[in-house]
Protein 1
Amino acid sequence: MTETLDIKITKTPNSRLEQTDFNDLPFGRTFSDHMFVADYEDGEWKNFQIVPYGDISVSPAISALHYGQSFFEGLKAYKHADGTVSVFRPDKNAKRFNKSAERLCMPTLPEDIFIQSIAAVVDIDREWVPGKANHSMYIRPFMFATDRYLGVAPSTTYKYMVLLGPTGPYFSKTLRVKIETHYTRSAEGGMGYAKSSGNYGGAMYPAKKATEEGFDQLIWTDAKNHEYIEEMGAANVVFVLDGKVITPSTRDTILDGVTRDTVLTLAREWGYPVEERRVSVAEIIEGAKNGKLEDAFGAGTAATIAPVGSISLNGEEYFLSDPKTREFSQRVLRELDAIKYGNAPDTHGWNYIV
Ligand code: PLP
Ligand code: COI
């Protein structure tokens, strides 16, 4: 039975809404007026608050800063034509949040607290949810360790927070991607399946090198032999090869994406053969060469459905068809948008109405 969360609300006297340019919303730069904060102390979650968005003060000795006890989630709220605001599949993020927490020896958060905290702060800042096509409110829940202690051990205190920011698409163009065959994002037994901050910090150096070579994203491969495709830096990867929808099966090296699950659910309902399995670099390159690779795209909350225009391996670049002509990803994009923005029936119960 869900109890209503007792949240202390302090509203800002100085809303920034009027000064915000909703025609210029690059990902991750604009924050709404309020944020959610809670503390974990003495073995329980407490001090549930919504406060004006702003800087916070922490000890310089917190283990989040020194040892990376920190992780996050990412989901989105959408505005429908009738003004309804919905959050997409927050139950999935609540479950993944706790998988990350467990992997990092951090406290789990009851799923209903996760969902209610998000709903409460989105409700207060609902005017911040953009009404424009391809725009939404990005929701960033996160948790970090707050003990003032430099020993390498799990903290006993934590903060959970939720930030909100109106945003346009994360990627503004068709992606030129490189298959990474030297660096590794995560290895078996590691924490690739967790949304731990360290996974992203560790990926920055190889990603920067790829950007310098003119690529937009890396496709990570298995740590052992770099023979199998895993995922992209900020999205899962889905292919249509010879009429089949193919994506790497999830394992401890891959983030189990909500968008990935949504895409596969729709694909199965539409009658496409769907294969979740090991996907070799060789078969994807072969498909790119012989034209059987009909579609390739990144699938993620921030990334949405991000078409891949070319795939490079060891200095060879293979070009795919014009994304506008691709049957599967275009259909997914249309249907997903229709559901999220309330223009198609939500038969799966994916929209959590705020
Ligand atoms: N993989 C990584 C590394 C990500 O950061 C993301 C984004 O959250 C995804 C995959 C896609 O996951 P989701 O669809 O749940 O956003
Ligand atoms: C998301 O899609 O929510 C992500 O976490 C991607 C982010 C790293 C930009």
Protein 2
Amino acid sequence: MNGNRTLTMIKPTAVKNGHTGAILAKIYEAGFRIIAMKYLKLSEEQAKAFYAVHKERPFYNDLVDFMSSGPIVAAILEKNNAVEEYRRVIGATDPANAEEGTVRKLYGTNIQENAVHGSDSDDNAIIESDFFFSKLERFDLI
Ligand code: CMP
């Protein structure tokens, strides 16, 4: 069964370039509800932990430096089949390969600074949501 939640981060370059509001508007227009949201700056240790699954990849150190370089917005999004639906809204990892109108095509800079993160599975959506949010920080009654 497909889950109904996913975790997103609006990445430092997109926040710095003033795209937070436009990206949140795309999220709402696509029919997602925001269950939890915060504006924060990851420490290097936190960025390492979040992306630990990629630690053997050649881009890991650069990714950690980038993701801890400035404030981000993290949010739990809800919609039926959320992981797949959100990945459709954001487009391919590399903005150069993303479809027209997707978040990464519109607001991404390059494959690393690709505007947003979206969970790649229901299991990771749970792990990543628990990374940022306690139970008291989630509002799912509306
Ligand atoms: P994200 O969806 O946050 O998941 C892992 C991140 O690693 C990805 O977005 C990119 O920011 C980054 N990434 C993936 N592949 C590459 C690559 N080939 N070169 C640089 N960064 C990458």
